[in-house]
Amino acid sequence: MDSPPAARYRRTLAALLVAAAPLLAAGCGSAHYLVGPVRPMATDLPPGAITQHVVLVSIDGLRPDAIAAFGAPTLQALTREGSYTLRASTILPSKTLPSHTSMLTGEPPERHGVLWNTVLSADRDQIEQPNVFSVAHARGYRTAAFFSKAKFHPLQRPGTLDFSQSPGGWFGRWGSDRTVSDVETFLLTERPNLLFVHLADPDRAGHASGWMSPDYGRAVSQSDAAIERLMSAAESAFGAGNFTVIVTADHGGHEFDHGSDDPRDVTIPWIVWGQGVRTGGLLGSEVRTMDTASTVLWLLGLDEPSDWTGTPVTAAFAAAPGAS
């Protein structure tokens, strides 16, 4: 149950975010916030749950080969200490909103129907398919999402997230420092069971200067540093060893764009670290972005919708649910 200070914090936060949104957006137009009612934290998870807290991080436009090429220390540590593949695959079109929709709904585009990748109709479009937020939220789990692009509004469905934020404006975008700073503040008082964090820096740099360019490398380093801060904040909030992290990407890229079936566009990293995770590469395991949604629910002990295409990546974990 929320303590009185925590409950007051959430009520006050909702009012302050609405009032301060134009300033907080930092030149990107008004911000888009969604704050749900105060609810008790889910503490009685199903017996098969691996963890009580899942942190899912998507680094927009991160190519797997960029991790070693630019010496990203945090991501390299997660691969050494966790389980991973640098040959996971995303969907076609390998674009931000379609790919994230597959990542979060466990469905390919031919099932979820999201082929657009623009903020043009984001305020009125709603992606109605069940996703990791709606399934977890319906079971009483606390859910939170921090998006760094305005085009994600269709995934911020009322009634599925206890807290969510994204930039507003036509080309609204926040850097990783801004996004993770907000997550750090949030985790001072909140303990979500499912926390999603989107970092946009590499995609911005890829479009502006080219994938694998020096500017892109700096953006990868900025995102890597943001993940280090996020890991520290999660450990303070949840306790050491009491959470599981998945780091992946929506797509890669080549030259100045992405969206094709070029291997540089559709090959993505998939890294899992923390509670319940075994160490080592996922040799021989084919991981698709739809599998991320299924793995998130599996970790929390929840059944995925029966028509989902995704499959939990159980090979990344030391023991099956309920095993001693």
Q: Low-confidence parts lasting 5 or more residues at pLDDT below 50?
A: 1-29
Roughly how many Å apart are the termini? 29 Å
Q: Structural class of the secondary elements?
A: alpha/beta
Average residue pLDDT: 88
CATH topology: Alkaline Phosphatase, subunit A
The number of domains is: 1
Gyration radius from CA atoms, angstroms: 18 Å
Number of helices: 11
Per the principal axes of the C-alpha atoms, what is the gross shape? globular
The CATH architecture name reads: 3-Layer(aba) Sandwich
CATH class categorisation: Alpha Beta
Question: How does this structure look, described?
Answer:
By secondary structure, this protein is of the alpha/beta class. It has one domain (53-316): Alkaline Phosphatase, subunit A. 36% of the residues lie in helices and 14% in strands. It is built from eleven helices and nine strands. It has a nine-stranded mixed sheet, with helices on both faces. Helix 4 (96-105) packs parallel to helix 11 (290-299), helix 7 (176-187) packs parallel to helix 9 (214-238) and helix 8 (201-209) runs antiparallel to helix 9. It is globular and about 50 Å long. 52% of the residues are buried.
